[in-house]
Amino acid sequence: MRCLRLIALLPLVACLGGCNFVVLAPTGDIAAQQRDLLVVSTLLMLLIIIPVMALTAFFAWKYRASNTDAPYEPEWSHSTQMELVIWSAPLLIIICLGALTWMGTHLLDPYRPLDRISADTAVPAEMTPLDVEVVALDWKWLFIYPEQGIATVNDLAAPVGRPIRFRITSSSVMNAFYVPTLAGMIYAMPGMHTELHAIANSPVESRGFSANYSGAGFSGMFFRFRGLPEADFDAWVAQAKQAPDALTRAAYLELEKPSQNVPARQYSAVDPALFDAILNMCVEDGKMCMSEMMAIDAKGGMGIESAAANTLPLTYDKHSRRGTVLGGAPSYVAGVCTPEEASRLLTLSSAARARAPVSDLAPVLGAGLPVPGLSATGLPAAGASALSPISLPASEALPGPRRPSNS
C-alpha cells in the first residue's frame, strides 16, 4: 500500500519539473541583488519558523497524556529565561531585516543610476546607459530607442554589460513593467513616467510581461527580452532599420487601438518627440499638452474668457473621439454664463446682440508657449488679442456672476 502511495505522488513530482525558477536564476546584477535579498529574508524568517514548528511537535509528544514521567506544574506562571528567548530572538531578526530593507530601499531604488556592472566591476566613467522609452498599450508593449532611432512592439533587446535606463509610461490604464531576469517590477501610468535602471550581465532570452491586470487582453500582454553581445545587438538594430514602416504620430494612433496577442514588430524610424507627446497626452494634432496646460496654470491661467472659443476639453477623451464605445460623448464650452443667463441672452433683440463686440473665436490649441494673451511674466502681452467678455447696454445687462457652462 505504501508503495502505491509513492507511485501516486510521481505525477506531482513530474509537474514540479516544469517549474521555471526564473526569479531565483537572474542574469542581471539588479535582479541578482533582489534574489539575494529574497533568499536572506526567507532564511531569517526560517530561524523562527523552524524552531517553533519543531518545538510544537516536541512539546506535544513530551507532554502527552500517556507520558507520566513528564513534570506536571499546574501553578507555573513565569520563566525569565523563556521570556528572554521569546523576545530577544525576534528582536534580533527584526533588526537584521530592518537593516536589509533600508539598504535595499536605497541601493535598489529603480530611479538610482547604476554604479556597478557586477559585484566586482564598476561602471566605466565614459559608459553611457542605453535609453529605452517604454509605452504600455492595450494590450502590447511599445519600445522606442531614441539613440538608435528605431521602435519595436513586443520585442526588447539590449547589449550585455551596458546599463539600461527605462523611461516608462502608459497610454490608457495602469500596467506594470516586469522582466524577472533583468530587474524588479515598476508601474506604468498614463500621464506620468517612471524610471528603471537595469543591466544584463550575460546573454539571455526570456520573457517580460505586465504584472497588473489591465483588461481583456491582459493574458497575452507578453514581450520577448534578449540580452545580446554588442555585435549581435548592432546587427539587430541594423535589421530594424530595414523595416518597411516608420512610427509616425499617425501610425502610433493606429497602433494604440486595443488589440490582443500582437506579434513582434519593428519600425525603421520614429518621431523623436513621440514619447513626450504620449506622456503629455497630446499625440493628436491640435491637442493641448499637459506640460503646456501646466505652464499656463503656472502663469496664472488665461482667464475665464479663454473658454469662450470652444477650447477642446482637457479631459483625456481620446476613446470617445476615436469612435470607440469607451468614454462619454465629446463636449465643448457653449458659453461663459449660467443656463439662465444664456436663456436671457437669447431673448435679446438682434440689434442689441449686433452692438456687442465680437470676441476672437479662434480655437485655443496647444501650439506651444508663449500662450496667446500672456507674456513671459504672466501679464497680458502688448498687442495680444485676448478674448474679452461680451458687453451689453445697461438696460439689457445680464445679472449675476459669469461662469462656464458645459454642454
UniProtKB/TrEMBL annotation:
Gene3D superfamilies, sorted: 1.10.287.90, Cupredoxins - blue copper proteins
Record key words, sorted: Cell membrane, Electron transport, Lipoprotein, Membrane, Oxidoreductase, Palmitate, Respiratory chain, Signal, Transmembrane, Transmembrane helix, Transport
Membrane topology: Multi-pass membrane protein
Top-rank lineage group of the source organism: Bacteria
Annotated ranges, domain Cytochrome oxidase subunit II transmembrane region profile: 15-112
CDD domains per UniProt: CuRO_UO_II (cd04212)
Residue stretches spanning the membrane: 37-63, 84-104
Protein location: Cell membrane
Major localisation: membrane
All copies of domain Cytochrome oxidase subunit II copper A binding, residue ranges: 127-239
A Pfam family assignment: COX_ARM
Family: Belongs to the cytochrome c oxidase subunit 2 family.
Name the record gives this protein: Ubiquinol oxidase polypeptide II
Species of provenance: Ancylobacter radicis
Gene: cyoA
